[in-house]
Write a structure and sequence with these properties.
This is Peptidase inhibitor family I36 protein. It holds the Pfam family Inhibitor_I36. InterPro entries: G_crystallin-like (IPR011024). This protein is α+β, with helices and mostly antiparallel strands and 147 residues long. It has 2 domains: 42 residues; 88 residues, Gamma-B Crystallin, domain 1. 27% of the residues lie in helices and 24% in strands. It is built from 2 helices and 7 strands. The strands form 2 sheets. A 4-stranded antiparallel sheet has the order 2-1-3-6, with no helix packed on it. Strands 5-4-7 form a 3-stranded antiparallel sheet, with no helix packed on it. Strand 1 and strand 2 form a beta hairpin. The protein starts with a helix and ends in a 7-residue tail after the last strand.
């Protein structure tokens, strides 16, 4: 806000009184529109959803975009998923395997790219290592998923 105010002050010195009044009107209109958009986003639920780790249903594989099971998330009963989707692809930082199957984690869609490792049933990772953070794109229950 200080930069905007300073810019307005500099501009005001170069304009006449009419120009200054028009600029104030535009600034006030911009602030009002921004406030209305913010209120509409909150009312309609446009803010990013969050879920606690305890919300991950038994039998699902649950992924989160931030460490410690926070941020945007996807819960899926699929122990094999060839693509986590645009919403979460290359954005996963936390995972909990609540299924009864071991899953293998891949950096690319369709169980390709680099094998990140595996996650036994009931195990979780609260914060992927830097080499695996924001890289998960698919998982399956076999080491060779495409065979």
């Amino acid at each position: 806000m200080a930069i905007l105010t300073r810019k307005a002050e500099i501009h005001a010195q170069e304009t006449d009184e009419e120009g200054w009044n028009e600029m104030k009107t535009n600034l006030i209109t911009s602030v009002m529109v921004g406030a209305c958009l913010t209120a509409a986003t909150i009312i309609t639920g446009g803010t990013p959803a969050a879920a606690d780790a305890e919300d991950c249903p038994k039998g699902d594989v649950c992924i989160w975009g931030d460490s410690n099971f926070e941020g945007q998330y996807v819960f899926t009963p699929q122990t094999t998923r060839s693509d986590v989707g645009d919403y979460m692809r290359d954005k996963v930082t936390s995972i909990w395997n609540r299924s009864d199957r071991q899953i293998y984690l891949w950096t690319e869609q369709g169980f390709t790219g680099r094998l990140m490792g595996y996650l036994p049933p009931g195990e979780w990772v609260a914060n992927f290592s830097s080499s695996n953070n924001d890289r998960l794109s698919s998982w399956c229950t076999r080491l060779k998923c495409n065979e």
